[in-house]
Prior knowledge:
This protein is mainly α. The chain contains ten helices and no strands.
Amino acid sequence: MLEELQTDLERVQALHAVIVARATGAVEGGEDYIVLRAHIIANTSYKELLPIFVRTNRTLEQFWQFIKGKLSSCAERRKYIWDEFAPPLDHLEGKDFRPLDEPTSATLKSFDEESVHAAWQKALERRKGDPEGAITAVRTLLETICKRILDQAGISYDSNKVELHELYKLTANELNISPSQHSEEVFRQILGGCSAVVNGLGTLRNRLGAHTEKVRDQENRKLGMRNLRLI
């Protein structure tokens, strides 16, 4: 089957068809599933978009044990499988294209610092399944770049206390990209927008951290009350 399929989109569509068939009563397709899955899961550019049951079930029979215990009717199974396959299919059809991803990735690859590119890739891979992690990765990336520029320029800062917006302000002044360093309104607006994005990123990450901590505290209190009832 694999030789007849010319693109990854066709391969993912074929895998989707094999899985739907098995979930709704067919017993064939086990070998096709293994071959298609092995090829598709090897592509790291969209591996994280694949349904979790594709990534964790190596055979069609393993998938069958999963789906029959999760949903009872064929209609429910079809809808569930379609919803789970929508992200990789949208990605491969171009509906998920983000114009800045590839150029920015290519630019970062041209740097000698492998850690910068690794941080960027980490953010891209997490943006769908773990948006909070993606924001953290981007913040780490910006902090790393700013600190490196400041270190090379010999500009001091308190690495233990300085906030992201303060780091960016120091870096912008050093690179002559601070809004206050320009008189033309169009440049002030553009550079002010960059500063606002950085400030917003720092604030958003802090709010997410506070929200996560609040949720964790609520869950711990519920668990404590449950344990008390069991005593």
